[in-house]
Amino acid sequence: MKKILFAASEGYPFIKTGGLADVVGSLPKYIDKEYFDVRVIIPKYSCMKQEMKDKLQYVTHFYMDYNWQKLYVGILEAIVDGVHYYFIDNESYFSGFSVYTDDPRYEIERYAFFSKAVLSALPILGFRPDVIHCHDWQTGLIPVYLKERFQGDLFFRGIKSVITIHNLKFQGKWDVKTVQSITGLPSYYFTPDKLEAYKDANLLKGGIVFADAVTTVSDTYAEEIKTAFYGEGLDGLLRARSKDLRGIVNGIDYEEFNPETDPHIVKPYNAINFRKEKCKNKRALQQELGLREDDKKMMIGIVSRLTDQKGLDLIAYVMDELCQDDIQLVVLGTGESRYENMFRHFDWKYGDKVSANIYYSDALSHKIYASCDAFLMPSLFEPCGLSQLMALRYGTVPIVRETGGLKDTVSAYNEYEGTGTGFSFANYNAHEMLATIRYAEHIYYDRKREWNKIIDRGMAADFSWGVSAKKYQEMYDWLIGY
Ligand code: GLC
Q1: Quick one: 141 and 219 in the same domain?
Q2: Which protein residue has the closest C-alpha to ligand 1 atom 12?
Q3: Residue 109: per-residue pLDDT
Q4: Ligand 1 pocket at CB < 6 A
């Protein structure tokens, strides 16, 4: 049995702020249990829901040298859906009201602590993974610590590591002196061939340099990040490591997201009966959100973190024009206040057409996927994107910009060949987006049979984890050596 340990800053259903949690929470379920023992380790946050905290069992604790102190490291565990989770507990680092703070120096201190604690916990748990699978900058120091300080120890010798980049924008950077002092790494690590980038210490860079393999969450993003535009300053390094860098597209949990069995929606439906049944969900949502009740109105959904990445400035730019059209727009999510306020403003201005829900709710997100006719995602960049996959699964037609995973998972409607699962545009341009939305409106209102065939093809597409989980397994096998 090969042993794999996922290390990450979040994992659904325990704690989630974004797509990372969905991937960490669902991929382990789809790795073949006959050959792999996959476990997951994340911090124990005080802001986890009480019902999830209630599932945690104390295992043990120890004290670890870190940042010039001896710090408490508690270990807890839980098994959900057959996946074995461990939690690293330290009251002072993980007891805030939210998962992340807005103090970048402190974030580095917290997650470098987590990274070191993960490795220190393994001998105590008696769990020696063959591969540690790290996710994003928060775990970037694991491959670094693993290669150097821990390799002297027989227990750690030969453990392989892989890092998956879910978002290159976040790298965990701070000045070298501070990071060196916090992490206790010797000064020769802080050179441009190791942790240093543009004079700062960079934890993600450390992970990319020291991991045995690097992956990201779609093929297109794997190519994009080797260019200056998407590379966030690390494109040179990624080009240099391109031999060890591959894209494996994310899947979604097809049990969690299933319009036939979804407990959150009023009217279940499937690929056969959506023509009749899906709009009943729309009616219920219109009622719930105070929109004009009309089965025939084209309803467009947005479920997103409200950040620059998601292309919301394009929407802001043409929102007044878009609201002249015969559509409804439903938004769910939180983020930067300028976008929160922008959507609140248009909700106020076009009350029966626009519904801005500036919070997050799993239940409402499922209702939006089930009720809307189209789903808008004009991202500036998108490593994979999961919402468009959820939309496809629910027969909701994605309208996306052709970048990263959006390009790989949504194929553009071609009216001459009768192909495609959604609508897309290439340039980061508000009117190009608007024209694409209007083309979708035209097909929706004037060529309904064609529209429904787009849905047929979207619902038939398979973005469950099956194929991608196999690719991860192959990579683990290759790293471990048969
Ligand atoms: C990040 C990316 C998103 C990706 C997710 C899971 O949230 O922004 O594109 O789908 O990670 O990999």
Answers
A1: yes
A2: 166
A3: 98
A4: 18-20, 23, 166-167, 217, 250, 382-386, 405
Model pLDDT for residues 164-188, shown as the tens digit of each residue: 999 999 999 999 999 999 999 999 9
What is the distance in angstroms between the CA of the first residue and the CA of the last residue of the chain? 12
Q: Taking a C-beta distance cutoff of 8 angstroms, is the pair 303, 333 a contact?
A: yes
Dig out the tokens for 362 from the structure: 């799993």
CA dihedral 38, 124, 136, 308 (to 10 degrees): 100
Closest ligand 1 atom to 22 CA = 6
Q: Cα(240)–Cα(234) distance, rounded to whole angstroms?
A: 10
For residue 441, the model assigns a pLDDT of 98
Q: Are residues 360 and 470 in the same domain?
A: no
> What ligand 1 atom has the least distance to the C-alpha of 379?
9
Residues 99 and 218 in one domain: yes
Distance (angstroms) between ligand 1 centre and the Cα of 331 equals 19
Distance 19 CA to ligand 1 centre (A): 5
| Number of the ligand 1 atom closest to the C-alpha atom of 383 | 9
Task: Read off the CATH number of the domain in which 82 is found.
Answer: 3.40.50.2000
| Among protein residues, the one whose CA lies closest to atom 3 of ligand 1 | 385
User: How far does the centroid of ligand 1 lie from the alpha carbon of residue 387, in Å?
Assistant: 10
Ligand 1 centre distance from Cα of residue 139 (Å): 16
Measured in Å, residue 384 CA sits from the centre of ligand 1 at 5
Q: Are residues 332 and 441 in the same domain?
A: yes
Nearest residue (by CA) to ligand 1, atom 10, is 385
Q: Which residues 6+ apart lie within 8 Å of 150 measured at CB?
A: 119, 156
Testing ligand 1's pocket by substitution, the residue of 12, 216, 217 carrying the most ligand atoms inside 8 A of its CB is 217
Rg of the chain on CA atoms, in Å: 23
328 CA from centroid of ligand 1 (Å): 27
Looking at the structure, tell me whether residues 284 and 400 fall in a common domain.
Answer: yes
What's the 136 CA to ligand 1 centre distance in angstroms? 10
Query: Domain of 286?
Result: 274-462
Does the pLDDT value for residue 149 go beyond 80? no
Determine, yes or no, domain membership for 261.
Answer: no
| pLDDT at 482 (0 to 100) | 59
Pairing outcome for strands 69-80 and 57-66: antiparallel
Q: 215 and 71 share a domain?
A: yes
The average pLDDT across 412-424 equals 98
Helix (H) or strand (E) holding 223: helix 219-224
Label residue 176 exposed, middle or buried (CB < 10 Å: 0-12, 13-18, 19+): middle
Tally of structural domains, the chain: 2
pLDDT in tens, 90-116: 999 999 999 999 999 999 999 999 999
Looking at the domain assignment, is residue 265 inside a domain? no
User: For 289-306, what is the mean pLDDT?
Assistant: 97
Pocket test for ligand 1, best of 12, 17, 20 (most atoms within 8 A of CB): 20
Same domain as 332, residue 215: no
Verify that 19 and 154 share a domain, yes or no. yes
Helix (H, G, I), strand (E, B) or coil at 2: strand
Structural domain contains residue 163: yes
